[in-house]
Amino acid sequence: MRIRRVLAALLGLAVLAAAAFWLRAPEVAVARIERGAAVEAVYATGTIEAVDRVEVRARVGGQLAELRVREGDAVRRGDLLARIDAKALSFDVARGQADFDAAQKRREGAPQLDALRAQAKGLEAQLAQGRADLSRAEELKTSGVQTAQQVEREKALVAGLQAQLEANLAQQRDVRIGLDADAARAQAGVATLSARFSDAEVRAPMDGVVMVRRVEQGETVLLNQPLFRVGDLGHLQVEAQVDEADVGQVRPGTSAVVRLPAYQEQLVHAHVARIAPEADRERKSFEIDLELESPPPGLRPGMTAEVNLLVRRHDGVLLAPAASVRDGALYLVASGRVRKRAVQIGIRDLSRVEVSGDVREGDLALLAPADEGARVRPRVEKLPRARPPLPSEAGLTER
Model-level pTM greater than 0.85? Predict the structure, then answer.
C-alpha cells in the first residue's frame, strides 16, 4: 500500500513537472501545411474603359452658341452635339462666293476674250481674201499676165495672216485657261471656307454615348480644345499598367482575375487582349488591355480594377505560410520544439509558398520567427489564403 502511495506521488510530481515545463514554454502561432494550387501572379492596377472612344475637339475657335447633349445621352454618327458661333467665317464664305460668281462671269464674257475673238474674225476674213488673191495671181502667172514676184508677195501675205490668226487663237486659249483657273481657285476657296464654317457644327464621330461633356453653353473655346468624349459602352475593357520588370511574363491570352471594388470586391475572369508595343517612359510600365469574360451589369468607364495576371500555376503541391520560410529553410514545430528543415522553394505569393522535400502535409509551420530548438507551445491557425482567390475558389472557370 505504501509503495502504491509513493508511486502515485511520484507520478503526480511528474505530471506537475511536465505541466510546469509546458506552461513555461511560449505559445507560437502555427498553420498546417496543406495541398493546393500555387499560382504565380503579376499584379497591376487599371480602370474600366470603352474599347472604342473618341475625344471630340473644337475645329474652330469661338463662343459656344448651342449645346445639344449631356453626359449619358445616346448619339448616332453625324448627330449635332454643339454649335460654335463663327460669324467671321460666315462673312468669309459670303465673300468667297462673291469672288467665285465674279470669276464665273469673267469666264463667260471676258472683254479681253471678246476682243481676241473679234480680231480673229477680221484675220479670217483677210486670210480668205488673201487666198483668193493668191489663186488669181497664180492663174494670171500661167497666162503670162502676172509675174512670179507678184505671186510670191501674195503667198507671203497669206502666210503672215495665217500666223497672226494662229497667234490669236493661242492667245484665246491662254486667256481661257487663266479665266478657268481663276474660277477654279475661287470655287476651291468657297469649298474651303464652307468646310471651315461647317466645322463650327460639332458632330458625333461615331455611334455611342456621351461619356464626358467638358464645356457649358456660352463658353469661349479655342481651336483643338476638348469638348466631349464619346464611346461605345457596349464593349468595355480593363486598361492596366504592368511594370516593365514583369511585362516579359505576360502574353496575349494570359488569364487574369480582376477585382472590382465597386462591386463589393467581385471577381471577374479576363484575359489579355493586347500589350502596348512601347513603354510609358515616365512610369516605366506597359499598358495592357484585358477583355472581360462576363462583365457585370452596370459596369461603367472609370471604375477601378485590380488585376492579377496568372502567369504560372502548379496544382496539388504543398503550401506553407510565407512567414515560415527563411533563407531557403522551412521552420516547423515538432515534439514541442522548433525544427529547421531544408526544402525546395517553388511559386511564392505574399502569403503562401510552394515547398517540397523533407516536409509532409499536416506539418505545423511557424507563422512568426523563433529560434531553432526552442521549446514552444503551438497554437494552430488557418493557413493564410492567396490573394486574390484563385479562379476555382471564386467560382470561376479556368480557360
Answer: no
pLDDT at residue 394 is higher than 90: no
Q: Which of 236, 356, 247, 327 is nearest to 290 (CA)?
A: 236
Asked whether residue 325 is assigned to any structural domain, the reply reads no
- Based on the structure, what is the number of domains in the chain? 3
Any domain includes 307: yes
Using CA of residue 46, residue 52, residue 53, residue 59, what is the dihedral sign? positive
- The DSSP element (H or E) to which 135 belongs, if any, is helix 111-143
Query: What's the gap between Cα 282 and its chain centre?
Result: 18
> Do 356 and 317 meet the contact criterion of CB atoms below 8 Å apart?
yes
Q: Please tell me whether residues 204 and 67 are part of one structural domain.
A: yes
Contact 237, 287 (CB under 8 A): no
341-352 pLDDT, tens digit per residue, is 989 998 887 788
Same domain, 117 and 191: yes
Does one domain contain both 270 and 126? no
- For residue 127, give the C-alpha cell: 486670210
CA atoms of 278 and 343, how far apart (whole Å): 40
SS3 71: coil
- Given a contact cutoff of 8 angstroms between Cβ atoms, the answer to whether 320 and 35 are in contact is no
Q: How far apart are CA 292 and CA 235, in angstroms?
A: 9
Do both 241 and 297 map to the same domain?
yes
Answer yes or no: are the C-beta atoms of 319 and 355 closer than 8 Å: yes
pLDDT digits (tens, 9 = 90+) for 21-56: 555 678 989 999 999 888 888 889 999 999 999 999
Q: Which residue has the cell 520588370?
A: 245
Q: What angle do CA 131, 133, 136 make, to 5 degrees?
A: 110
Q: Which domain holds residue 279?
A: 43-52+232-311
CA 209 to chain centre: 17
Q: Are residues 193 and 204 in the same domain?
A: no
Strands (E), 33-117: 34-50, 53-57, 62-67, 74-75, 80-85
- What CA–CA distance (Å, rounded) separates 173 from 171? 5
CATH of the domain at 212: 2.40.50.100
